[in-house]
Amino acid sequence: MNRVILPLLLVIASIASFFMWINPHYTAVKDLKVQLAESQDALDKIVELESVRSSLVDKENAFQPADITKLQKLLPDNVDNTRLFLDIQGVASHYGTSIQDISVGAGQASGAVATTQAIGSSKKQYGQMVLGFSINTTYENLSLFLNDLEKSLRLVEIKSLGFTADNKNPNHYKVALSINAFWLNPKTATSIKSTQ
Fold it and tell me: What is the three-state SS of 43-74?
């Protein structure tokens, strides 16, 4: 009888030890292996992101400081409409005229027109403001003025252009211009600077 009871007790003890000790520890080890794999994937992504960041920093450092200054002037990180009007006045003064009838925001109290459009396919955001002014000039000088305005570094878009003839001088026109000026959204500009 001992021959039957002893093996039966050993089988019952091994089944009980499996459910009470081995199975919980085995399940815990499987969970730890899953967590280890997830942690390893996260570490691999961190290493990949660091290499991409390092590559982008190297590309940025390859730019000449003068080129970075030009890019910042093309699309600044703030409105800076005063600087823009000074730049436009500088172009106008080359042709013997000055800007007049300055308006900002086309009737908006704050002067800013809120936009949330993305430039191209990227997620970068920009702002825009409508600026208006007029100049008194000849048609030839207007053509040269617009050509210089097109070649200036600041990104602007001419929205409207209106002519009024000068009764005193038939070769002169009062030209009213309305332009859109663009700048980087402060959040976008901050995220770009934080990667430097």
Answer: HHHHHHHHHHHHHHHHHHHCCCHHHHHHHHHH
Residue 168 in tokens: 């005193």
Q: How far apart are the first and last CA of the chain?
A: 82
**Residues shown for the chain:** 196
Q: Is 88 exposed, middle or buried (0-12, 13-18, 19+ CB in 10 A)?
A: buried
Token reading at 61? 């450092």
Which is nearest to 185 in space by CA: 70, 110, 111, 76?
A: 76
CATH: 3.40.1190.20, 3.30.70.60, 3.10.129.10, 3.40.50.170. Which one for 75-193? 3.30.70.60
pTM score, whole prediction: 0.54
Residues contacting 117, CB < 8 A, separation 6+: 125, 126
**pLDDT greater than 70 at residue 133:** yes
**CA torsion, points 167, 173, 179, 181, in degrees to nearest 10?**
-120
Per-residue pLDDT, 41: 93
Domain boundaries of the chain, sorted by first residue: 1-62, 75-193
Return the amino acid letter for 144: L
CA angle 69/74/77 to nearest 5° reads 80
What's the rounded Cα separation, in Å, for the pair 155 and 128?
Answer: 10
